[in-house]
Amino acid sequence: MQGEGRFVQSLPASRDRYIYIDMTVSRRTFVCFCAVLLAALPAVAFGQGNAPVTVLGAGSLTDALQEIGRNYQTATGKRVVFSFAGSMILAKQIESSAGADIFFSADSESMDYLQSRNLIAAGTRQNLLGNTLVLVAPANSTTRLAIAPSFRIAEALGRGRLAVANVDTVPAGRYAKAALTALGVWNAVAGRLAQGEDVRGALAYVARGEAPLGIVYGTDARADARVRVVGTFPANTHEPILYPAALMRDAKPDAAAFLAYLTSPQARAVFERAGFTVLAR
Predict the structure, then answer these.
(1) Less packed terminus of the chain by CB within 10 Å, N or C?
(2) 110-119: long-range contacts at Cβ-Cβ below 8 A with a sequence spacing of 24 or more?
Protein backbone atom coordinates (compact mmCIF):
# COMPACT_ATOMS: atom_id res chain seq x y z
CA MET A 1 0.00 0.00 0.00
CA GLN A 2 1.32 3.44 -0.90
CA GLY A 3 2.64 5.44 2.05
CA GLU A 4 3.25 2.37 4.13
CA GLY A 5 6.35 0.29 4.87
CA ARG A 6 6.37 -3.44 5.48
CA PHE A 7 8.50 -4.92 8.25
CA VAL A 8 8.90 -8.63 8.69
CA GLN A 9 10.13 -10.11 11.96
CA SER A 10 10.94 -13.79 12.33
CA LEU A 11 10.46 -15.49 15.68
CA PRO A 12 11.70 -19.00 16.43
CA ALA A 13 8.77 -21.40 16.74
CA SER A 14 10.76 -24.61 16.99
CA ARG A 15 14.11 -26.01 15.95
CA ASP A 16 12.99 -26.50 12.32
CA ARG A 17 10.31 -23.85 11.72
CA TYR A 18 9.90 -20.10 12.07
CA ILE A 19 6.76 -18.05 12.50
CA TYR A 20 6.70 -14.93 10.33
CA ILE A 21 4.84 -11.87 11.58
CA ASP A 22 4.03 -9.28 8.96
CA MET A 23 3.79 -5.84 10.63
CA THR A 24 2.50 -2.97 8.56
CA VAL A 25 3.48 0.43 9.96
CA SER A 26 2.54 3.85 8.65
CA ARG A 27 5.71 5.54 7.38
CA ARG A 28 4.33 8.89 8.53
CA THR A 29 3.80 7.52 12.07
CA PHE A 30 7.28 6.07 12.14
CA VAL A 31 8.91 9.33 10.98
CA CYS A 32 6.97 11.34 13.57
CA PHE A 33 8.03 8.95 16.31
CA CYS A 34 11.71 9.34 15.36
CA ALA A 35 11.41 13.12 15.26
CA VAL A 36 9.90 13.21 18.76
CA LEU A 37 12.61 10.91 20.10
CA LEU A 38 15.43 12.98 18.61
CA ALA A 39 13.92 16.20 19.88
CA ALA A 40 13.80 14.79 23.41
CA LEU A 41 17.47 13.83 23.52
CA PRO A 42 18.92 17.35 23.88
CA ALA A 43 16.45 18.09 26.66
CA VAL A 44 17.53 14.99 28.57
CA ALA A 45 21.20 15.86 28.10
CA PHE A 46 20.53 19.44 29.14
CA GLY A 47 18.77 18.28 32.30
CA GLN A 48 21.65 16.02 33.26
CA GLY A 49 24.26 18.70 32.59
CA ASN A 50 22.43 21.20 34.78
CA ALA A 51 21.64 18.96 37.73
CA PRO A 52 22.18 20.89 40.97
CA VAL A 53 25.32 20.43 43.02
CA THR A 54 24.57 18.60 46.28
CA VAL A 55 26.37 19.75 49.42
CA LEU A 56 26.23 17.87 52.72
CA GLY A 57 27.14 20.29 55.49
CA ALA A 58 27.44 20.44 59.27
CA GLY A 59 24.34 21.81 60.99
CA SER A 60 26.19 24.90 62.20
CA LEU A 61 26.71 25.94 58.56
CA THR A 62 22.99 26.02 57.76
CA ASP A 63 22.32 29.76 57.61
CA ALA A 64 25.61 30.79 56.02
CA LEU A 65 25.61 28.11 53.32
CA GLN A 66 22.00 28.71 52.36
CA GLU A 67 22.73 32.41 51.87
CA ILE A 68 25.87 31.61 49.89
CA GLY A 69 23.92 29.15 47.77
CA ARG A 70 21.35 31.81 46.90
CA ASN A 71 24.08 34.29 46.02
CA TYR A 72 25.82 31.70 43.84
CA GLN A 73 22.63 30.92 41.94
CA THR A 74 22.02 34.63 41.33
CA ALA A 75 25.57 35.08 40.04
CA THR A 76 25.83 31.93 37.91
CA GLY A 77 22.32 30.64 37.30
CA LYS A 78 23.37 27.30 38.78
CA ARG A 79 21.52 25.77 41.71
CA VAL A 80 23.00 24.17 44.82
CA VAL A 81 21.01 21.96 47.19
CA PHE A 82 21.99 21.32 50.81
CA SER A 83 21.49 18.68 53.46
CA PHE A 84 22.49 19.50 57.04
CA ALA A 85 23.14 17.24 60.02
CA GLY A 86 25.90 16.17 62.38
CA SER A 87 29.18 15.75 60.50
CA MET A 88 29.79 12.07 61.27
CA ILE A 89 26.17 11.26 60.45
CA LEU A 90 26.69 12.84 57.04
CA ALA A 91 30.03 11.09 56.53
CA LYS A 92 28.41 7.70 57.07
CA GLN A 93 25.56 8.68 54.79
CA ILE A 94 28.06 9.49 52.05
CA GLU A 95 29.77 6.16 52.64
CA SER A 96 26.54 4.21 52.25
CA SER A 97 25.00 6.03 49.28
CA ALA A 98 25.96 8.04 46.22
CA GLY A 99 24.80 11.53 45.31
CA ALA A 100 26.89 13.92 47.40
CA ASP A 101 29.21 16.28 45.52
CA ILE A 102 30.76 18.26 48.40
CA PHE A 103 31.20 17.48 52.09
CA PHE A 104 31.64 20.42 54.46
CA SER A 105 32.40 19.12 57.94
CA ALA A 106 32.66 20.77 61.35
CA ASP A 107 35.64 18.62 62.33
CA SER A 108 38.64 16.86 60.89
CA GLU A 109 37.65 13.43 62.20
CA SER A 110 34.57 13.12 59.97
CA MET A 111 36.56 14.15 56.90
CA ASP A 112 39.35 11.74 57.88
CA TYR A 113 36.72 9.00 57.98
CA LEU A 114 35.84 9.55 54.33
CA GLN A 115 39.41 10.12 53.22
CA SER A 116 40.52 6.81 54.77
CA ARG A 117 37.88 5.12 52.62
CA ASN A 118 39.05 6.85 49.44
CA LEU A 119 35.74 8.69 49.02
CA ILE A 120 37.02 12.24 48.56
CA ALA A 121 38.74 13.60 45.46
CA ALA A 122 42.51 13.80 45.94
CA GLY A 123 43.90 17.27 46.47
CA THR A 124 40.56 18.99 47.08
CA ARG A 125 40.44 18.93 50.88
CA GLN A 126 41.08 22.23 52.66
CA ASN A 127 40.26 23.82 56.02
CA LEU A 128 38.00 26.75 55.24
CA LEU A 129 36.70 27.99 58.61
CA GLY A 130 37.21 28.14 62.35
CA ASN A 131 34.75 28.65 65.22
CA THR A 132 34.45 29.10 68.98
CA LEU A 133 32.65 27.10 71.68
CA VAL A 134 30.32 29.02 73.99
CA LEU A 135 28.01 28.52 76.94
CA VAL A 136 24.56 29.96 76.29
CA ALA A 137 21.42 30.65 78.31
CA PRO A 138 17.94 31.86 77.35
CA ALA A 139 17.99 35.56 76.51
CA ASN A 140 15.93 36.44 79.60
CA SER A 141 18.12 34.40 81.97
CA THR A 142 20.08 36.17 84.70
CA THR A 143 22.67 33.40 85.06
CA ARG A 144 26.27 34.57 85.38
CA LEU A 145 29.19 32.15 85.23
CA ALA A 146 32.91 32.60 84.73
CA ILE A 147 34.21 29.64 82.74
CA ALA A 148 37.26 28.38 84.61
CA PRO A 149 38.56 25.15 86.18
CA SER A 150 35.93 23.62 88.49
CA PHE A 151 33.38 26.34 87.69
CA ARG A 152 29.95 25.74 89.24
CA ILE A 153 27.99 24.76 86.15
CA ALA A 154 26.11 21.94 87.89
CA GLU A 155 24.73 24.35 90.48
CA ALA A 156 23.78 26.84 87.80
CA LEU A 157 21.63 24.19 86.10
CA GLY A 158 19.38 23.94 89.15
CA ARG A 159 16.95 21.14 88.35
CA GLY A 160 17.47 21.55 84.62
CA ARG A 161 19.70 19.86 82.07
CA LEU A 162 22.67 20.99 80.01
CA ALA A 163 21.86 21.10 76.29
CA VAL A 164 24.62 19.74 74.06
CA ALA A 165 24.87 18.06 70.69
CA ASN A 166 25.28 14.30 70.83
CA VAL A 167 28.63 13.76 72.55
CA ASP A 168 29.36 10.55 70.63
CA THR A 169 28.48 11.43 67.04
CA VAL A 170 28.47 15.23 66.63
CA PRO A 171 31.62 17.39 66.67
CA ALA A 172 30.03 20.13 68.83
CA GLY A 173 29.13 17.49 71.39
CA ARG A 174 32.62 16.05 71.41
CA TYR A 175 34.14 19.51 71.78
CA ALA A 176 31.76 20.22 74.69
CA LYS A 177 32.68 17.00 76.48
CA ALA A 178 36.40 17.67 75.97
CA ALA A 179 36.09 21.22 77.34
CA LEU A 180 34.11 20.18 80.39
CA THR A 181 36.56 17.34 81.05
CA ALA A 182 39.54 19.67 80.78
CA LEU A 183 37.91 22.02 83.28
CA GLY A 184 37.19 19.16 85.70
CA VAL A 185 33.38 19.39 85.65
CA TRP A 186 32.35 16.66 83.21
CA ASN A 187 31.45 14.12 85.91
CA ALA A 188 29.21 16.68 87.59
CA VAL A 189 27.01 17.12 84.50
CA ALA A 190 27.42 13.86 82.53
CA GLY A 191 24.16 12.48 83.91
CA ARG A 192 22.27 15.71 83.29
CA LEU A 193 22.50 16.20 79.53
CA ALA A 194 19.82 17.07 77.00
CA GLN A 195 21.45 15.85 73.79
CA GLY A 196 20.36 17.13 70.40
CA GLU A 197 20.87 15.30 67.10
CA ASP A 198 23.11 18.17 66.04
CA VAL A 199 24.25 21.53 67.40
CA ARG A 200 21.11 23.27 66.16
CA GLY A 201 19.04 20.82 68.16
CA ALA A 202 21.00 21.72 71.30
CA LEU A 203 20.54 25.41 70.54
CA ALA A 204 16.79 24.92 70.19
CA TYR A 205 16.51 23.43 73.69
CA VAL A 206 17.93 26.62 75.16
CA ALA A 207 16.11 28.99 72.81
CA ARG A 208 12.77 27.44 73.76
CA GLY A 209 13.59 27.61 77.46
CA GLU A 210 13.64 23.84 77.83
CA ALA A 211 17.23 23.89 79.14
CA PRO A 212 18.74 26.61 81.34
CA LEU A 213 22.19 26.28 79.76
CA GLY A 214 23.71 24.83 76.61
CA ILE A 215 27.01 24.51 74.79
CA VAL A 216 27.04 25.46 71.11
CA TYR A 217 29.26 27.20 68.60
CA GLY A 218 29.66 30.95 68.76
CA THR A 219 28.09 31.24 65.32
CA ASP A 220 24.94 29.40 66.46
CA ALA A 221 24.51 31.71 69.44
CA ARG A 222 24.90 34.68 67.14
CA ALA A 223 22.19 33.38 64.82
CA ASP A 224 19.42 33.15 67.44
CA ALA A 225 18.27 36.20 69.39
CA ARG A 226 16.49 33.95 71.88
CA VAL A 227 19.80 33.03 73.54
CA ARG A 228 22.70 34.99 75.00
CA VAL A 229 26.32 34.03 75.51
CA VAL A 230 27.29 33.42 79.15
CA GLY A 231 30.94 32.76 78.35
CA THR A 232 33.42 31.37 75.82
CA PHE A 233 35.41 28.20 76.49
CA PRO A 234 39.19 28.71 76.34
CA ALA A 235 40.65 27.40 73.09
CA ASN A 236 43.06 25.14 74.99
CA THR A 237 40.21 23.13 76.53
CA HIS A 238 39.30 21.41 73.26
CA GLU A 239 40.75 20.64 69.84
CA PRO A 240 40.74 23.50 67.32
CA ILE A 241 37.30 23.79 65.72
CA LEU A 242 38.03 23.43 62.02
CA TYR A 243 35.70 23.13 59.04
CA PRO A 244 37.28 21.16 56.17
CA ALA A 245 35.54 20.91 52.80
CA ALA A 246 36.26 18.58 49.90
CA LEU A 247 34.87 17.25 46.65
CA MET A 248 33.61 13.71 46.67
CA ARG A 249 35.35 11.23 44.40
CA ASP A 250 32.38 11.06 41.99
CA ALA A 251 31.37 14.73 42.20
CA LYS A 252 29.63 16.42 39.28
CA PRO A 253 31.89 18.66 37.16
CA ASP A 254 30.06 21.79 38.37
CA ALA A 255 30.89 20.99 42.01
CA ALA A 256 34.48 22.23 41.69
CA ALA A 257 33.22 25.70 40.77
CA PHE A 258 31.05 25.92 43.87
CA LEU A 259 33.85 24.67 46.12
CA ALA A 260 36.05 27.44 44.70
CA TYR A 261 33.24 29.96 45.27
CA LEU A 262 33.31 29.09 48.99
CA THR A 263 36.70 30.85 49.18
CA SER A 264 35.60 33.91 47.19
CA PRO A 265 35.31 37.40 48.69
CA GLN A 266 31.53 37.14 48.41
CA ALA A 267 31.40 33.93 50.45
CA ARG A 268 34.00 35.22 52.88
CA ALA A 269 31.77 38.19 53.70
CA VAL A 270 28.86 35.89 54.54
CA PHE A 271 30.98 33.62 56.74
CA GLU A 272 32.51 36.53 58.64
CA ARG A 273 29.14 38.16 59.18
CA ALA A 274 27.94 34.86 60.67
CA GLY A 275 30.89 34.88 63.09
CA PHE A 276 33.17 32.29 61.52
CA THR A 277 36.91 32.75 61.29
CA VAL A 278 37.82 32.40 57.62
CA LEU A 279 41.01 30.37 57.18
CA ALA A 280 41.16 29.84 53.42
CA ARG A 281 42.62 32.63 51.30
Answers:
(1) C
(2) 110/171, 111/87, 111/244, 111/246, 113/88, 114/246, 114/248, 115/246, 118/249, 119/94, 119/95, 119/248, 119/249
